[in-house]
Amino acid sequence: MSLAISHSVTYDVDRVRRDFPILQRSVRGRQLVYLDNAATTQKPQQVIDRLTRYYREENSNVHRGVHYLSEVATAAYEGARTTIQRFLNAKSEKEIVFTRGTTEGINLVAQSWGRKNLRGGDEVLITAIEHHSNIVPWQLLCAEKGATLRVAPVNDAGEVIVEEFAKLLTDRTKIAAFGHASNALGTINPVRQMTELAHAAGAIVVIDGAQGVPHLPIDVQEIGCDFYTFSGHKVYGPTGIGALYGREALLDAMPPWMGGGDMILSVSFEKTTYNALPYKFEAGTPNIADAIGLATALDYIGSLGLEKIAAHEHDLLLYATERLQEIKGLRIIGTSRQKASVISFTLETVHPHDIGTILDQEGIAIRTGHHCAQPLMMRFNVPATGRASFGLYNTRAEADALVEGLKKVLEVFG
Ligand code: PMP
């Protein structure tokens, strides 16, 4: 990774920060320094206002009503779907299914496409940097079907070894599932290349985009994947909402995975016919308000400029990486050439939980633990790491605060 630092002049981070009320608050008597964005992001006033307006003025159930409010709510909910379709550059709104988040998106593919198409002896290929939510759903599926889970290894920088990934793709591989970016190390995968390789072997491709959408412009047609899923709360939107993109022909051929209202055309005790896409996969009253809030969040980051956000975060990554070299005994885990603004580290003499606790006293929020990636921690021979993850509102001054905080940690424990 090159450490040339270029500071973005066209991005006014101070103005951006004013959109996020929570950033103004203090914690433990200190100004909050929020560096836990890979776990969840803070929400701009625009999103908070949109949720409030929905509940104050528009609340109703969608799709079924003929009355005014139901039409307003339906238009806003379906409008949110269109926003997501455009954001991901999917061909059609039919390819966007609302879910609770990334976890549900992956489980939907495993339970619907996977249960229908996998047989004993088949294989699912993932990589060593996956989040548990891109491991366990495939383990459940493989156990049920007598299939095998294969894992492509990573090198010491935390990059997937693409040649090994390619070698593990055989005519037995039915599904290749991998993250766009790693929440634990920041590694950005060459998703287009990996998709081409998997398709050449005849596998479908599922991309966990939980850490892709917050940091990178996404074009699912350009990537060429079959499924791409992400969570609203990691991209400045509400919790409890996310979306799954699926190629229309695949979604069309898949059985529903949950039954209930809204996903049917007609029901009798003898036979039920299912609704068209994407409603076939949206049983029950959906999370209307948060879907609308998610669209507002995507509009918000779109208005700031995705390229500008990426450049700002990259600047923070390089700046913080360089400054952290000052800390004695600090080891950065994950030094991928293509990297999102996530820095995982250990301190020679201090347990990560102690690092997190001391930093918390300074008002600095980082995450410590295994980051829902226990196999990856084993690969690097550490039980846990400290992780600072930067978002669009973070500043170089906050990276400085982290460095000063770590110096205090060393004073206490060093
Ligand atoms: N994948 C990755 C890479 C993640 O970072 C996360 C959240 N930490 C998830 C999947 C799961 O997302 P959610 O909990 O929002 O479903």
Explain how this protein is built.
The protein has helices at residues 13-18, 45-58, 68-88, 102-117, 136-145, 162-168, 191-200, 220-223, 248-253, 288-304, 306-324, 352-361, 374-379, 396-413, and strands spanning 26-27, 30-31, 33-34, 96-99, 123-127, 148-152, 173-179, 204-208, 227-231, 242-246, 264-267, 272-274, 330-333, 342-347, 364-365, 367-369, 385-389. It has 414 residues and is of the alpha/beta class. It has 2 domains: 13-40 and 305-413, Aspartate Aminotransferase, domain 1, CATH 3.90.1150; 49-302, 3-Layer(aba) Sandwich (Aspartate Aminotransferase, domain 2). The strands form 5 sheets. It has a 7-stranded mixed β-sheet, sandwiched between helices. Strands 13-14-17-16 form a 4-stranded antiparallel β-sheet, with helices on one face. β1 (26-27) and β2 (30-31) form a beta hairpin. α3 crosses α10, α11 runs parallel beside α14 and α12 packs across α14. The chain is globular. It starts with 12 loop residues before the first helix and ends with a helix. The model is unreliable at 1-8 (pLDDT under 50). 4'-deoxy-4'-aminopyridoxal-5'-phosphate binds at residues 38, 101-103, 131, 133-134, 179, 183, 208, 210-211, 231, 372.
Our Rg estimate from Cα atoms comes to 22 Å
Task: Using the coordinates above, name the CATH class of the largest domain.
Answer: Alpha Beta
Major sheet strand order: 4-10-9-8-7-5-6
Number of domains: 2
Taken as a percent bin, the fraction of beta residues is 15-25%
CATH architecture of the largest domain: 3-Layer(aba) Sandwich
CATH topology descriptor of the largest domain? Aspartate Aminotransferase, domain 2
Query: Which superfamily, in CATH terms, is the homologous superfamily of the largest domain?
Result: Type I PLP-dependent aspartate aminotransferase-like (Major domain)
What's the count of strands? 17
**Small molecules held by this entry:** 4'-deoxy-4'-aminopyridoxal-5'-phosphate
Weakly predicted, low-confidence segments: 1-8
Largest sheet: 7 strands, mixed
